[in-house]
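Data availability (excerpt). The following record was deposited with the supplementary files.
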Amino acid sequence: MNLQVENKKPKISNKERYRINKLRFYEKDLKKKGYKYIAGIDEVGIGPLAGPVVAAACMLPDRLIIKGVNDSKKLTEEVRVRIYDELVNNKDVVYSLGIVEVKIIDQINIHQASLLAMKNAILNLKVKPDYLIFDGRKHPIMPIESESIIKGDSLCHSISCASIIAKVTRDRIMEDYHQKYPLYGFNLHKGYGTEKHRKSLIEHGPCQIHRKSYDSVKVLS
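Predicted structure:
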């Protein structure tokens, strides 16, 4: 007996289509002004005590509708991964990553490292953008027209998608690190300063991926 394979993409209601179209306001407005290649940029990993900072730059095709797209922090892991898979497996989505490891973070500080991650993500795009939209206030200086949007990961479609790509990428990096450093539970907290993580630091001291320039790591090591 032949069984039909269910379509893994969830059905999208008219209400959700309307929400996503509102989320695309910035991109639509910029396209009307003549910009063609608009990239949303976001980073993740400023707060953790361990692991890299990861940025993503993302350019989306017109009329792309993926159910649930939002600030990655507002989504469950299951929804984030599902949206991530839809994005990276769509040949019309142009995205890239910028990853700055702990050694560099400790050398130049986390603020500069986050700017470097965003810059590298932009430079790694296979299509050169003609306009950049950043989340938050701080962003690298680039020879491309740009703007910053406070809470852009909740308000702008391409930034929301970039935040999801960056978050899932970093989470998977930390899960891989858990295999190498199983004493710290990186698969659970992803390097953030949870009680379990702090107790592990006190008991075992920092490992190679801890940010030793952070006072909270110095104190607990």
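Summary of structural features: The chain has a mean pLDDT of 94.
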